[in-house]
Design goal:
By secondary structure, the chain is an all-alpha fold. The protein contains 9 helices and no strands. 71% of the residues lie in helices and 0% in strands.
Length: 203
């Protein structure tokens, strides 16, 4: 999985009680999104995560990891262009706009991936294919770090990377939404990466 910015904290959005509820007027919701309100953006993330992932799959026909990159790129663009949402009038307009952003992100990442593949193919004859094995000490350290995680996070990592479960199946097995599971996995991986870098700097 590639490095990605942390997803919004959807638990905080639920706690704020209704940034995406039917009671919230369209104009008020769109205005909150346009000014970059954290609760509104987190609620949009939760409401659209599954839809964006399914749309990315339909457009790209690629694996889950690639489609998650599309979803992440979609939300980066939403945040970058949030002020444009003030031009929209209804949630139907927002849904159409979100669909267009997902499609744009998917096409751009497909093109980027094609260029990367062509560059790798051009360098292939000179590439060094010798991979450094993971030392027993490093493997033991990683197991200790995973054991120190929150049990739910450790279970998600075990399902996703140890047993090869898809994100959808890992979320279902732990009783979470896809967005919530993805957020926890990203944050757990970020903590492990940070710890590894700290250890490397101390050596």
């Amino acid at each position: 999985m590639t490095d990605r910015p942390d997803p919004p904290d959807r638990g905080h959005a639920r706690a704020s009680g209704g940034a995406w509820s039917a009671a919230a007027g369209d104009a008020a919701l769109l205005a909150a999104l346009a000014r970059g309100d954290h609760d509104a953006l987190a609620a949009l993330y939760e409401a659209w995560f599954g839809r964006a992932l399914n749309l990315a799959r339909a457009i790209t026909r690629r694996d889950e990891s690639f489609c998650l990159d599309v979803v992440q790129e979609t939300y980066v663009r939403v945040i970058d262009h949030a002020p444009r949402l003030s031009r929209l009038a209804t949630r139907d307009d927002l849904d159409r706009w979100m669909g267009a952003v997902v499609r744009s992100a998917a096409v751009d990442l497909l093109r980027k991936d094609l260029r990367r593949t062509l560059r790798e193919q051009a360098r292939a004859p000179r590439a060094n294919t010798d991979l450094e094995p993971v030392s027993a000490e490093r493997a033991a350290w990683l197991r200790e770090q995973i054991d120190a995680l929150h049990p739910r996070d450790a279970e998600l990592l075990s399902l996703r990377f140890g047993r090869g479960a898809t994100l959808t199946n890992a979320a279902r097995a732990t009783g979470m939404t896809i967005g919530a599971a993805y957020g926890r996995i990203c944050r757990a991986l970020a903590r492990l990466t940070h710890s590894a870098r700290e250890i490397d700097r101390e050596r």
